[in-house]
Amino acid sequence: MALSAPAFLRGRRPRLDMAKEEAAEGYLMVLPVGLGLLIFSFGPIFASLYLSFTSWDLFGPPEWIGLLNYTGMFRDQLFLKSMSNTLYYTLLAVPFGTALALAVAIALNQKLRGTNILRTVFFLPSVCSDVAIAVTWVWLYMPDMGLFDIILKSVGLPSPHWLSSTEWAMPSVVIMAIWGGLGYNMVIFLAGLQSIAQEYYEAAMIDGANRWQSFWRVTMPLLSPITFFVVIMYVIGSLQVFASVYVMTGGGPYNATLTIAYYLFRNGFEWFKMGYASSLAYVLFFVILAVTLVQFVLQRRWVYYES
Amino acid sequence: MSARAMSRRRALKGLLVLGAGGAALSACGATPTPQVVEKVVTSVVEREVTKIVEGTPQIVKETVVITEVQTQVVEQVVTATPAPKGPVNLVLADYVYDMEDQQKLVDMWNADHPDMPMEGQFAPWDTYWTKIQTQIAGGQVPDVIDMSAFYVVVLAFRNGLLNIDPLIERDSFPIGDFYPTSVETFRWQYGQIRVGEGPLWAMPESAQCGDMFYYNKSIFDKEGIPYPDDSWDWDKLLAVAKALTKTASDGTTEQWGLIVPADARMIWWPYTWQAGGEQFDDEMKNSLAESEPSVTALQRVVDYFQVDKVCPLPGSMQMHPFMSGKVAMCYDGYWMATMTFTEITEFGWDVAAPPKGPVKRQIGLGCDAWSIMSGSKNIDAAWEFLKWASIDKGGDFIVQYINAGFPYKPLARKYTYAKDRTLPPQSLWIYDDLINEAHIEYCAGNYAEYASAATSEVEAAVIGKKTPQEAARDAATNVNSILAEAWKKYVG
User: Fold this and answer.
1) CATH classification of A71-302, choosing from 3.40.30.10, 3.40.50.1100, 1.10.3720.10, 3.40.50.300?
2) What residues of A are in contact with residue B324 (Cβ under 8 Å)?
């Protein structure tokens, strides 16, 4: 028997039916956060898009210059240098960082005494400030007096001059970044490893698979969604590297560690070229978007989802 | 179409409208008020004229200097600070190293001037300019700001600063008792990009040498070498630096003779002056980085690192190498003498006159100043603060506790350059005369950018990536490009 409206409402149209009312309530609940997001996130994003087509030093009104910022970028040697440095950083940090995090996670996935303590120790850098880590590592890299030079000297090896060398400055920053991000990625991989059902390994053992074959044929495919996530996040973070460069090298020596994010900062806040800095930000955004989209397309070839 | 989908569509439309509204709000900044200002433009023109030479009409070329007054509409930076009711409330923005002493200064002012209470807004240098930019863009500008020579042109161009010459004249303020270069650094006029002439846009607050010469007395005592004095030149400096550079059997350098900053402003440009040259032409239209004195200067600097090996390669160091006690001499800014090096207790140290170059001895002067923002509603009160903080009780406190590199000569000579100093550096009085004859900084529009471009080339040469000639050539190219931008922006 169909329900009918109460007598006092018959003949009157209800303002909202149940579904609409629930939806309206839901949107009302998120409205405060949504408003904040719109005004303080999307608003500045759209504003900076506008600014990227202007010349603006913050002390006067923006002057519309069309695409000049974008076209001028490709004649800007420092922009090209910063892009190549950023890609170099990413190509070093992501594969080595991911592989090391996976190796540590596999090692700490064993049921041995002390693994909990070790997991905590490895994770500690992730809860430290990037700036504090960078300051500490500058001490480690200090010429002659730093720990690394002392160790190299003790085994009779010459110092590569770490942050003073154009060849070694970026790898030095990458080494620090890998160390800093190791714990976070290790924890993610650990969670993935522990979600793999033991039955798969038992089945592989029954089929005569050795340890390497179990790892390559069972662990890696089942871990591939986690690996995909880690790689995507690592790439996005690497393309935006700023704090470590700002603290450790200031973009030097001779622009060897000048990344796109740091170059953007210099243009905006040291040279008062806000319009150009905004255009750099958008170029970085589109590079990150393009790289992420490519990864999503390529995932069909190597990421295995059990479902 | 379901009711839920309809609601979602409407909600999305509403969000988009709100987003656009948010963008409009975010894009709103200070409302500019156009102002017509006059600028004097001088141009040199070569033209052909017909003249009678020995009774015969001939076409000759003559050079004519044309000076004209042009009007220019400048978008004025307008502050939206409403006029206060009741007692004047001053706002002072300052970049500081020691907030405690800075707050004491504000408290002293408030105690002396209860009718003009002041609020201090302090920030470290790194974040200060971002904050000022944001405040200006938002229309909430302080009455008085701490102004750096690096940015005075940027703000003065936008009419953001008050010309204080009329106030100086009105009150017979003793501006002549300031170190000349410290005052020139904050003079600028329309029609040019560099400082040096024109209205005064700020009251000097510090006069600091960027290439002060420090030495480790304990090392000199141990080696039995007389302390540096004003007879030293570059050759003497190099000889002593070599003698004081000690290398262990495994090739590690245990003691360095000299530390030189790989920085254009702090070493290349001063060395160029000492070699008898300049880095820019008079109007700052062209870089002179490839000139002989400039290349000579850069070669000298590079040789310290690459040939003579008396300097460690530049690299990020948490501790200034001089503080380790393993460096005999170093060039660094004046500010190290009154801040960082004061922590040294393990060895004795002092300053000496920088060694003389092939032509002369000269230092550069970096200055800070107080500026009254043109939109301030409390100009008289702000001016009273400037006077108080320069030659009065506030100045007396600043020179003793905040900034010993003071530009007002009577107070500087009373405290900083007194010959009976007990705390190191005891020989600081040497710099009184040097500062009086200091070379003005090449401060102009786009200063931060071309200084950075020049410093990159110094770095490249010092670490051996380029020869000094190549570095000078590339510095000239890059700096000229930035100067062209600056001329286009500030002169048109």
Assistant:
1) 1.10.3720.10
2) 145
